[in-house]
Amino acid sequence: MRNSVGLVGWRGMVGSVLMERMEKENDFSSFNPVFFSTSQIHEEGPTFNGKYYGNLKNAYDIDILKELDIIVTCQGSEYTNKIYYKLRKSGWKGYWIDAASYLRMKKESVIVLDPINLSAIHQAIDNNCKTFIGGNCTVSLMLLSLGGLFSKKLIDWMTVSTYQAASGSGASHMVELLMQMNAVCKGISSDLKNPAKSILKIEKKINKISLSDGFPTNCFHVPLVGNLIPWIDVKTEDGRSKEEWKIQSEANKILLSKKNIPIDGLCVRIGSLRCHSQSFVIKLKKDISLSEIEKILSHHNRWTRLIPNDVDATIKNLTPLSVTGTLFTPVGRVRKLNIGKKYISAFTVGDQLLWGAAEPLRRMLKILVNQKLD
Ligand SMILES: NC(=O)C1=CN([C@@H]2O[C@H](COP(=O)(O)OP(=O)(O)OC[C@H]3O[C@@H](n4cnc5c(N)ncnc54)[C@H](OP(=O)(O)O)[C@@H]3O)[C@@H](O)[C@H]2O)C=CC1
Ligand SMILES: N[C@@H](CC(=O)OP(=O)(O)O)C(=O)O
Predict the structure, then answer these.
(1) Which of 1.10.10.10, 3.30.360.10, 3.30.70.2740, 3.30.470.30 would CATH assign to domain 140-164+232-352?
(2) Is the complex ipTM higher than 0.85?
(3) Which pTM value belongs to this model?
């Protein structure tokens, strides 16, 4: 019998990317989807692969949710917090698959990233685990790109510097970045018509526009265009941002590390749209040749591409623009550092809405409905 699967948060940014992938891979044919909303209850539901799925159900109605075998939610932590325990308390024993961070570090949950922890996922299912959560986007993209080094247990410790896209903070933030771009462009459009105009005069004007009162900064609080923000999420007690705290905690939970691999770094918001980039300094446990490292990195999974450490390949293939909308997690700038023979650098880029959010959930659902992974 086909499972009934509730889809909550499918209208949002992460949810839409998930629906796009499911439609492309014809996933809807292998279960009975039921579509929910917190705000559009009884409104017309969606049509996917030519099939209409009826009116939207109330995402807060425990009695309806209780009837489902599996619930997939991209609605966010607030919704999870409101509904998850209520539903469990009602006696519901179904599978909960979630993009939000709320349940990630709880004992009862497994963080899903099947190219890295498929056997742990299967083991958890055998052990009656019912709660499967997608990881933080930077963590998932880091583990995928460096999967070979992690699986061969070659990493002693590492540091990360992130360059995170506006999409990580939500659709309204992306819109604000575009509005900021628009405001700057409007303000200097006449100057750009005169190539002889001093660039420093234009630059001064941009600064003035960006710092003016009417400049759109409701979401980011400061300009992001022509700027960067070296802080993501709230401050934790030890001076890290919560985004920085997640790197070591979530990565080691996914890896089932007996002894934590120390991973730390700084997370920075930049003005790219939906790809996160990360720069790594890695201390290996032993001195191995660059060619061996490259082989290990490129052979680990079919989404990781090794980009040769040269100018042309890097600027064409290791950028947010070249990766956006794809499932690839290329890794490049791999070279030995002059700090010592065991130290290497690497740089990766990944789509924060695909492998960073939607794809691990889609694949987890496939595992549960007994479909072969693509
Ligand atoms: N794992 C990761 O790295 C990531 C996880 N996330 C998680 O996913 C959650 C959702 O993020 P995101 O998709 O960016 O959130 P969105 O704000 O895009 O969507 C969330 C919900 O807002 C409601 N909504 C209201 N108005 C609209 C509208 N005009 N268009 C579409 N939806 C609308 C929808 O719910 P309704 O139909 O009920 O009104 C929708 O499901 C986050 O809170 C976070 O927890 C996000 C990014 C990355
Ligand atoms: N915090 C990430 C996106 C995100 O939603 O992360 P999480 O799923 O851990 O809350 C970013 O801002 O880029």
Answers:
(1) 3.30.360.10
(2) yes
(3) 0.97
pLDDT tens digits along 53-67? 999 999 999 999 999
Domain with CATH 3.30.360.10 in the chain: 140-164+232-352
Domain 4-136+357-368, CATH: 3.40.50.720
Closest residue by CA, ligand 1 atom 40:
12
> Degrees (nearest 5) of the Cα angle 91, 124, 160?
115
Task: Pick the ligand that lies closest to the CA of residue 79.
Answer: 1
- Site to substitute for ligand 2 among 81, 243, 248, most atoms within 8 A of C-beta: 243
316-353: pLDDT as tens digits: 999 999 999 999 999 999 999 999 999 999 999 999 99
Choosing from 74, 173, 219, 276, which is the catalytic residue?
A: 276
What ranges make up the beta strands (E) of the chain? 4-8, 32-37, 47-48, 51-52, 57-58, 70-73, 95-98, 109-112, 131-134, 155-163, 263-266, 275-284, 331-336, 343-351
Annotated active-site residue 129? The verdict is no
Ligand 2 pocket test, candidate residues 18, 78, 104, 136, most atoms within 8 A of CB: 136
